[in-house]
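**User:** I keep going back and forth on a fold encoding question. It is easy to fool oneself when nobody else works the same problem. Could you pick a protein and write out its sequence and tokenised fold? Could you put it straight underneath, so I can go through it closely?

**Assistant:**
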Amino acid sequence: MKTIAYSVLTGVMALSAVCAKQDRPNILFIMTDDQAAWTTGYSGNKQAMTPALDSFREEAASLPNTFVNSPVCSPSRATLMTSRYPSEVKIMEYSHNPLSPEFETWPRLLQKNGYHTGLIGKWHLGGGESHPTKLGYDYFMGLLGGGCSPVNPPLEVDGKKIKVKGFMLDILTEDAMKFIENRPKDKPFMLSLHYRAPHGAYLPVRDEIWDKVKDKAYALPDFPKLKPNLEKMMRGYLASVSHYDWNFGRLMKKLDELGLRENTVVIVTSDHGYNIGHHGATHKGNGDWGSELPRSYHHKNLDKLPGKKMPNMWDTSLSPPHLIRWPETVKPNSTIRQEINFIDFFPTLCAMAGTQIPQGTVVRGKSFLPLLDGSQGDEEWNNPLLIQHDTHLTYVLRGYRTKKWKIVTSYSHNYGFLYDLEKDPGETKNLYENPEYKQVRERLTKEMESKMKAVGDPLFLPGEYPFTKKRKKK
């Protein structure tokens, strides 16, 4: 209850200040799929071609220490919607379970508070009673499942599944522009635009984009003996990001044409990060091993795992891009370095929208609006990250991240990770088995497990673990 009270109180205080300055803003929440923080030009990646995002960054605040609470699609999206942990909503892997309507969502609260709401794009949290229109959205067009072709995709349109001709990125953008243009003029709008890109398959993309990259050589991360196919993977992945960037630019131009820039909050993020050779891995938290070296490079017991899976919680898997533009509230071209969790979006968006969270609603996150408007300083902010993921419902991982330390422990297999983030921000030296750091590991494990117990993680509840039988008894 302490978390709930804090979130609601800070949200009410922040929204009072906002509402005194201006009418409730429109909210455009843009979320890509599988896009890592390292994929943009403004992040320092010289191989990325993202001119629209780079320009937007100069008008927005960047929040580079934003981390998801699970490094895979469905669990991360569920935490975003509910401000609850994956184990609470019983979604521990992609396409695991639908999101139950028993959980409150921030779109539903905004809808009840007079917002015209829409979701265009990827949902990945179920249909039927878990359909977006049952959980807070007036309008839905897109993909209920997890993946499809980036061209001529099968989408739900007006309640029916049909094949729509064209690039999915272009189709979703054009529908978003129509939604905004045709919105009711007597109420604010909130649009969730959930692109499927740059999730694989990355290609095809528009010819004018592909022509710029098809013959280009791409450098890979500095990790030994990466497999040669990763350069092709990098080329396709960054081409997909560039195609998204082209559409992002079109959408921002439409906002300006409609005179909506000044009173529209634009949030840009992704559902988690991604690896193409980073740490020797590929894909996300449930990814594969992409090096000719053995996986024991990271921990002696990793080679005992079957196949080439590389379950992980590195920052590259957890960190998406995160930009927020809100004229006259958020300082342009600023950087907010405090740690943000994905569970924090729920109370923050409610605060932005002047929407009170009903008493008794369980909210695990806390509003970071005071960081955006400058009313709270760095010294007052403490926001450790709890991470949950059961890779393929087989590898049970939990992680805990503070400003200085990160610990990741396998509760199904005998391995773990410990990093000193101040001395080793790239997470290159695993200290988990180092006897000099035994007390640090034990202290962080105690803190992590205390948090796990507080949110009812079933690893610490009586009976068999509900998500997989491959559980190592403590």
Remarks:
- Residues 28 and 266 are 5 Å apart (CA to CA).
- The radius of gyration is 21 Å.
- The domain at 385-460 is CATH 3.30.1120.10 (Arylsulfatase, C-terminal domain).
- The chain has two domains: 2-380, 385-460.
